[in-house]
């Protein structure tokens, strides 16, 4: 191995032990969270300190179209400078040769971070915590479906065939038999994760037909967002090996639960290493209540980051394991904000609003930004909710168009996330929404064609 590989993370070095590295995939997440970049021979990567991509990758909609996000400079597509973060180097174990992936950060020609690059947005929010002497800690939970191959978008998505030859069954949450049905796919997920140095805290069957959940160990927000970004790719690759698709759509199958990315948060005092949500006697602190207050006050403004597509809002249905409001409660899964049972030193707050279709960098950034504003503004939480929160009213936007209107008026949130990022994001999402409104759905043809 060449000299530069000696500084790789241990998992990457073990993967390459006694092998010749063939290729390096230089990747960066765009607004939807899709990996963009270049694959280069290992010998070339060893010689280059950076590479270039046009900034237009951040102006692109999920369909490949563009809005007017380029702004006053026009659509001239200037190059960004992308520099590797070698701490993110990890295997691509599904490839036919020996390949590494490396996440890059985006800068302009003056060395300033590109403000609308999702990883930079999250770094900006984390830095605001660090300036207060705080260290944010997160733990994401990833829900997704394994489904039958769907080659015709006009046809509904169906559950995959399990090992038994029968379609995956619904309403079998936590069933080990159901997990065994997907054994070969899960085995590859574990193998790929181990090769990449990722620690899975557990895999469970969720309530939907073919729906699984992976829990990740808590840690640095940027590191965990990197892992979710990588995990989405490795899960898709594992599924394709077994003639099925993995989907992270928020609501892929009608009448089945949606898929969430629940985000657990805690905040440590850098000097003491103590959890600021817990006092000396083990009780809940003012910081605990103001962080919850920040989520309640500012998550409605951040919904387009947590629910970024028209499909996202189909998930928020009563009694389908997704919240409809931002009530908070202890060990209450009907509320949008849940405080899990834990020891005082591990006290944490769970945001249950984010969908699995969100960009992990932006979803975590939005959640931390809301909590940060609560801490800084001392925004007290509402009274704890007791009982079934589905009996209450919804208190956040229920369509993408409505959510974008609220997002555009969120001055304090925009200052935390970055005004230029918010401008670009809103334009791209409005372009997507207008594209969707231009499509006539099967429901409209079925019920309106001959009846109105």
UniProtKB/TrEMBL annotation:
Coiled coil: none annotated. The keyword Nucleotidyltransferase does not apply. InterPro entries: Gln_synt_N_sf, Gln_synth/guanido_kin_cat_dom, Gln_synth_cat_dom, Gln_synth_gly_rich_site. The keyword Magnesium applies. Belongs to the glutamine synthetase family. GO terms for biological process: glutamine biosynthetic process; polyamine catabolic process. Its cofactor is Mg(2+). Residues 118-452 form the GS catalytic domain. PANTHER family: GAMMA-GLUTAMYLPUTRESCINE SYNTHETASE (PTHR43785), GS CATALYTIC DOMAIN-CONTAINING PROTEIN (PTHR43785:SF3). It comes from Pseudooceanicola nanhaiensis. This is Glutamine synthetase. One of its GO terms (molecular function) is glutamine synthetase activity. Keywords: Ligase, Magnesium.
């Amino acid at each position: 191995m060449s000299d530069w590989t000696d500084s790789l993370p241990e998992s990457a070095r073990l993967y390459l032990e006694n092998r010749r590295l063939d290729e390096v995939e230089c990747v960066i997440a765009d607004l939807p969270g899709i990996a963009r970049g270049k694959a280069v021979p290992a010998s070339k990567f060893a010689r280059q300190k950076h590479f270039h991509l046009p900034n237009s990758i951040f102006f692109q909609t999920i369909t490949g179209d563009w809005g007017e996000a380029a702004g006053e400079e026009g659509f001239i597509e200037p190059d960004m400078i992308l520099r590797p973060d070698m701490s993110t180097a990890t295997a691509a174990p599904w490839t036919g040769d020996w390949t590494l992936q490396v996440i890059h950060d985006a800068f302009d020609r003056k060395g300033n971070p590109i403000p609308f690059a999702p990883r930079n947005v999250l770094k900006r929010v984390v830095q605001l915590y660090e300036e207060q002497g705080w260290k944010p800690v997160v733990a994401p939970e990833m829900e997704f479906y394994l489904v039958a191959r769907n080659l015709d978008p006009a046809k509904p998505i169906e559950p995959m065939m399990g090992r038994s030859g029968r379609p995956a069954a619904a309403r079998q949450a936590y069933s080990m038999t159901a997990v065994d049905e997907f054994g070969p796919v899960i085995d590859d997920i574990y193998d790929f994760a181990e090769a990449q140095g990722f620690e899975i805290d557990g895999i469970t069957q969720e309530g939907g037909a073919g729906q699984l959940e992976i829990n990740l160990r808590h840690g640095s927000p940027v590191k965990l967002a990197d892992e979710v970004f990588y995990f989405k790719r490795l899960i898709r690759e594992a599924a394709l090996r077994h003639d099925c698709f993995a989907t992270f759509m928020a609501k892929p199958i009608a009448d089945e639960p949606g898929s969430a990315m629940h985000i657990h948060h805690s905040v440590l005092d850098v000097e003491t290493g103590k959890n600021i949500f817990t006092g000396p006697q083990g009780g809940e602190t003012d910081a605990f209540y103001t962080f919850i207050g920040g989520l309640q006050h500012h998550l409605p403004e951040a919904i387009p980051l947590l629910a970024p597509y028209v499909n996202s809002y189909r998930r928020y249905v009563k009694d389908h394991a997704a919240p409809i409001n931002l009530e908070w409660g202890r060990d209450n899964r009907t509320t949008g904000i849940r405080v899990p049972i834990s020891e005082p030193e591990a006290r944490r707050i769970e945001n249950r609003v984010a969908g699995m279709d969100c960009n992990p960098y932006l979803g975590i950034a939005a959640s931390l930004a809301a909590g940060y504003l609560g801490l800084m503004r001392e925004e007290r939480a509402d009274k704890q909710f007791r009982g079934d929160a589905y009996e209450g009213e919804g208190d956040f936007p229920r369509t993408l168009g409505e959510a974008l209107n609220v997002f555009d008026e969120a001055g304090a949130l925009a200052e935390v996330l970055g005004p230029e990022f918010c401008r670009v994001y809103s334009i791209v999402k409005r372009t997507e929404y207008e594209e969707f409104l231009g499509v006539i759905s099967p429901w409209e043809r079925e019920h309106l064609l001959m009846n109105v």
